[in-house]
User: What shape does this take?
Amino acid sequence: MNNVDCSAIQRRVYLDHSATTPVRAEVLAVMIPYFSAAFGNASSVHRWGKEARMGVDLAREKVAHLIGANPSEIIFTSGGTEADNLALRGTAYAQKGKGNHIITTKIEHHAILHTCESLEREGFEVTYVGCDQYGMVDPEDIRAAITPKTILMSVMHGQNEVGTIEPVGEIGKIAKERGIVFHTDTVQSPGKIPVNVDDLNVDLLTLSSHKIYGPKGVGALYVRKGTRVAPQATGGAHERGLRAGTENVPGIVGLGEACYLAGKDMPDESARLAVLRDNLIQGILTTIPESILNGHPVQRLPHNVNVSIKYVEGESMLLNLDLMGIGASSGSACTSGSLEPSHVLLAMGMPHEMAHGSLRMTLGRSTTAEDVDYVVKTLGPIVSHLREMSVFTKP
Amino acid sequence: MYNDKVMDHFFHPRNVGEIEDPDGAGQVGNPICGDVMRVTLKIKGDKIEDIKFKTFGCGAAIATSSMVTELVKGLPLDEAMKVSNNAVAEALGGLPPQKLHCSNLAADALHAAIEDYRKKLSASPAQP
Assistant: This one.
């Protein structure tokens, strides 16, 4: 019955780059001195402090350069989640006098959604705008949700599950016209699609280091000059008084380098990834009957493949893929830790059973054409094996 | 997440399939929650002569389905009815807490199949 051979692991293929990425060699190299040689506290007056501070300042410039911002507009945090929290809570509390309404979408990352839900419990009102079947948000739906009490809008840039690239620039224009603070979570974007704070018309923007070949535990929030944010981590004057805490100097230095490399490599790398992505999508859709692509077919992150495969469940696909050396993820309930499948797939109108059968593969710097061929060759028998066992497959 | 025994039942499931003209059949779960199991039985002399399963579900769902069929093959129906969700999870050496609900479905599908057989039996008393 079982045609999956344990001895047949021919290669290791990591396809979960949207979950996390390895630290690039160049990034690690610039970080190392700051662990023991230039170890000072960046706030200290003496030379040890100065060395550390210079590392932080240079990193700040690199991050700013990636997104077209001023270095003074970059706030370092412990990651994307903290930056999202600071953006939402910081704005909500700072703008409380003007209103209490927040607009976001149903397809945001949990860092946004759970924070909005928490703000709702504190008395703020939140509108969660829906999307179409491709996971695309319509700027007109955002516009229609605006009220005189709206103080903040947050719409993500590159959708992390299905890869759809949201019309952030257009939405930002609407926010600007109405004088509403606008935040975008661009955690998935750098190195893949351009990220410019003026093109996107944003006041706040979230970056995460470990998604772009930097170290885990560090991120950044862009805060446009003139945008009021109430600090959430208090206890020092760090980061212009917006985020207290001794700077994670090696991490920050790593993030800076990761941003620099992401910007430099993006034109070539995004083109390379898009070809591999499309080959993988075509390979799956043509060799596996009753499989569909999730997310927008064109307005799509160049590294994202997300498919739903009928009659089989996501986690069982992942376990079989893992046995064959392939690492991927899924939107099934069993992989979410809750009893619900991906909220993004459900927001797109997908029936539960298709959401449970979803498979996300996100390519990266290490992905080759041979890897893509191997995945296509390997997935077919896995799906056949699971379909033979499935209740739903027609005999 | 899963121990070796669970993985063994997942990668080498026992008794996969569908019995033709089953004496009893039970299907539980729904695609909304992500696990569906179907158990079919061949009964002889009030014992489970053969049992097969089909499952749409995760690692725990497939492993528990396989284990339940292994536990009850050859057992008298009364004893098979007593095989509980806990027994299946224990036989597998335990499951992560968020996966325990999958083991419910395996025992429930088995019980549903036995009840289906008994209902058919009482509906037509003149058995050969």
Remarks:
- The domain at 25-262 of chain A is CATH 3.40.640.10 (Aspartate Aminotransferase; domain 2).
